[in-house]
Amino acid sequence: MIYKTHGTCSSEIHIELKDGVIDTVKFIGGCNGNLQGISALVKGMEPEEAIRKLKGIRCGFKSTSCPDQLACALESICKEIPV
């Protein structure tokens, strides 16, 4: 899935799930080192766990952040997955 971000330095997040867990996350743009770290930390997590941990994180005075946008992207994916 490719998610277009809003309100952050990154412009897109590329996400792949495998067997119901996060397999890969790649941010396009943004703070490279920090975003590589976030990607490594969420690998192997269920999307719902990552959403709980990342939702609502803000960057400075912005109303969102790259981690928050990742949570939004994962929420979008969860809505598309049949239960």
Structural notes for this entry:
It is a single chain. The protein is an alpha+beta fold and about 80 residues long. The protein has 3 helices and 3 strands. The chain has a 3-stranded antiparallel sheet. A hairpin with a 2-residue loop joins strand 2 and strand 3. Helix 2 runs antiparallel to helix 3. It starts with a strand and ends with a helix.
Q: Can you write the helix and strand succession as a string?
A: EEEHHH
* Fraction in helix: 40-55%
Structural class, by secondary structure, is alpha+beta
Widest beta sheet: strand line-up? 1-2-3
Number of distinct helices = 3
Categorize the overall geometry: globular
User: How much strand content do the residues show?
Assistant: 25-35%
Summarize the biggest pleated sheet: 3 strands, antiparallel
Beta-strand segment tally: 3
Between the first and last Cα atoms, what is the distance in angstroms?
A: 18 Å
Poorly predicted parts: none
As a whole number of angstroms, the C-alpha radius of gyration is: 12 Å
- Give average pLDDT, whole number: 95
